[in-house]
Design brief:
The structure holds 2 protein chains of 2 kinds.
Chain A lengths: L2 H28 L7 H19 L2 H25 L4 H20 L13 E2 L9 H5 L1 E2 L1 H19 L1 H11 L1 H6 L4 H28 L10 H11 L4 H23 L6 H19 L9 H8 L3
Antiparallel strand pairs in A: 1-2
Chain B lengths: L5 H4 L11 H5 L4 H27 L4 H14 L1 H26 L7 H19 L5 H30 L3 H21 L32 H19 L1 H11 L1 H6 L4 H28 L10 H11 L4 H24 L6 H15 L1 H6 L1
The chains are: A mainly alpha, B mainly alpha.
Amino acid sequence: MNGIEQSLVGGVEGGTAILLPALGELIGQRAGVINLGSEGAMLSGALGSYAVASSTGNLVYGVLAGFVGGAIVGLLHSWLTIRRGGDQVASGLLLWFLALGVTSVFGADYKDSIVDPLKEYAIPGLSSIPWVGPILFDHNLLVYLGYVLVGVIWFVFYRTRIGLTLRATGERPEVVSATGGRPQLVQITAVTLGAALGGLGGAQLSIGFVGNWTNNMTNGYGFVAVAVVLFAAWRPVYVLAGSYLFGVVLATAPVLQAHQVAVNQYLLDALPYLATLLVLALFARRGKSETPEALVRSLNRST
Amino acid sequence: MTATETAVVTAPPTPEPVREPTQLRRFSGSPRLRYAAIVLAGYVIALVLFGFIAWLKDAEPFSMFRTMIDTTLLNSSSLQQTVLRAVPIALAALAVTIPARAGLVNVGGEGQLIIGAVVATGVGVAIGDDVPGIVSWTAMCLGGALGGAIWAGLSALMRTVLGANEAVTTLLLNFIATDVMLYLLYEPWKDPDGSGQPQSRPLPKDAILPKLFGSDINLGVFIALAAVGLVWFLLTKTTWGFALRVVGGNSEAARRSGMNVNRLLLSSMFVGGAIAGLGGALNFAGVDAQLHPSATLTYGYVAFLASFLGRHKPLQVFGAAVLFSAIALSGNGLQINDNLDGAIVDILLALIVAVPLVLVKFRRRA
């Protein structure tokens, strides 16, 4: 496997740990709620899945625990922002600190335990396509889940009534309410499900391809996921592209260094954020139609 | 926010400072007393929850609280540490407060602190050996403030010119600032005598802010206090501060009454960023004296929560920043004395900020 393939495979593995939380963030933001606690949801999911996997020895339970761990953070965010009417940015940041504290304190017990990471399954046929096959179709199930979810979310968003209600909630919750819908319920469901996907992203890190637990192991991936949603201008397919692009960029520097190419990792690391800023700069006005209006309103509401 | 409120503005636009109107209507003290009791109960519950979590980790809650107070407030050297750590947190918190008055959300305190420290490092290391201390102190403070102002100003420009939301652009710029700092520390600025550690050259002795009264308190603490006083004065006693609140209350009304809203938004972010940049510079020039990758330790985000807890009122924000400084510092003591992971204090921080979030509705009613 040459260096390019190596960084692409790494990009898909690491990119999935961005894609799942980014899709979750997308669902929440489309319903009009930004969750900066995405990082917290990932931490919670990463430790939850690792703890359950290492004590039961069953990785499936581990993945489920990751989902639940993220969902708990999502429920807290829903409660604070939607039910109690608290500020979304403050709530997200405090949930990040909460998760950082809780996982550091209770994760100490799992630092020395070992978990075999999730098995990789080569998809028969597809994985033998030259070059593309090993990069895209020889991974663990969470990676494939990411592929499938992009399609599912696109379909639900644009082809179903549920998706219409979700998007309408993100634009004009009062209209949804006037037509007999329950915008709060939609938002709570979206935020909780979204954070649960964030938890799966954390699981992809801890039991997906790394196979250990360290304090603060998500190291900003949750914030990258938020950036990806903005980069993608709230479109599911662009979220997929953005996540893997960011994943590849993050995976490239170590590969280059391993091949004795002198490159400063941190200049590369800044690129995704610069690209996101550029997208925001270029499309802030033109892209307005796709920016969930309720989201803009809640962000502009002075804290 | 702007379009929906135009209807309100058809009345003659006499901008008034935005006060909670309900407080004026109900003169009797009882609802406010009840609210105070609810708030107090909220904080007690937060502390009990925190004690419970520590108890789950086999710590004795009362001895833990004892440690936290002992190692942050009760002897003079720990109190000094609390004060020193409060400098960057308080100044970054005011960087949130000032734009918040005008209705802007600055999540970028972290990046503005970092850039302030980076510029101060560049300036201080370059000239520190050649000029008297007072020149390099001034240059580092001004440079740091300018750096922070530009960093925050970028977001403000993106907001006013391009319409990009400042909450997300300030957040993104935090990560870019971190990467800029790490890039410098791992390559061009790496200390050649640092045995391979990613850290800058140490600041020359003369350029370090002098310690005063034989304590650890340095000149930076007083510069920071002056900055806090200045911000308080600007926000509460000047036309500019008044105008910011009008814009924050109803930007459409402000525009129609002839205020230059964009200029006010820009200036609020610019001044805020400068204050945070100053905080980064003071922390570097007074305490660290050598830039290293963990220079800010997420103080910028803690600062956002401090400004939120202080309800964007300068003196309350300052108090919240000192409290958070003590909480952050107490992690060290808990690690040593009570065998707890130092990060446990992040839980307390979160629980404390959760109280006003949970009680928003009560406050509106009281």
